[in-house]
Amino acid sequence: MRLSILIFDGLTTLDAIGGYEILARLPGMETEFVAAKRGIIAADTRSLGLVAFRDFSEVTATDILYVPGGPGAFALETDELFRDTIRRLDKTSTWTVGICNGVGLLAAAGVLKGLKATTNWLYQDRLRAYGSEFVAERYHRDGKYVTGAGVSASIDTGLFLASLIAGEQVAKTVQFGIEYYPAPPFPEARPQDVAVEIQERIRRFESEGGRKLLVHEPVFKGMFELARATV
User: Fold this and answer.
1) Residues 185-195: pLDDT tens digits?
2) How far apart are alpha carbons 83 and 73 in whole angstroms?
3) CA distance 55 to 53
4) Whose C-alpha in 49, 62, 70, 96 is 20 to 30 A from the C-alpha of 231?
5) pLDDT of residue 221
């Protein structure tokens, strides 16, 4: 089984890596990180990168199409190459996964129209605008589409999908292997329980701050080219 994780400049790393740490450990799973171009893809923090070792044209089919989110996803909602890649690979997939506002990329590509999905708490109105019904859940399945809420929900979503693919015992074994038994130090159990001032702070970041980060060059830009040149 092949897991294809689409990555892009300005992704939120945990959106991708949370699910990766679960699904890549399933027996027989082949995992690939795919982008418009091969190379190091910078995360939203501009201090971490993931390596895309295949480009879109090299992947013609997949079993699991996995789309993370991040500030860089907003611009891709109107990027025809990215949307076409989603539509093309979705036609071949057994499962299609979206995390955080990566769910919005699936919706923008038209594959979630008329379906129920979850997403980042602050993205729900945008999801509705694409013709999907928002559900306030940590993860949700509608047919072959499995969607996760914000960032850390990638882990829960990955475990849920792992149980569907490999069975509950395997999923529980992976959960134990990564010791995922979260116990956060704060009492709020849902986004809607968080203080209004904190919600507004993050709302401002989502609408403005996150994308402002992307004007900065990654701190590692040029380092790898220099290293290759000196070898």
Assistant:
1) 999 999 999 99
2) 11
3) 7
4) 49
5) 84
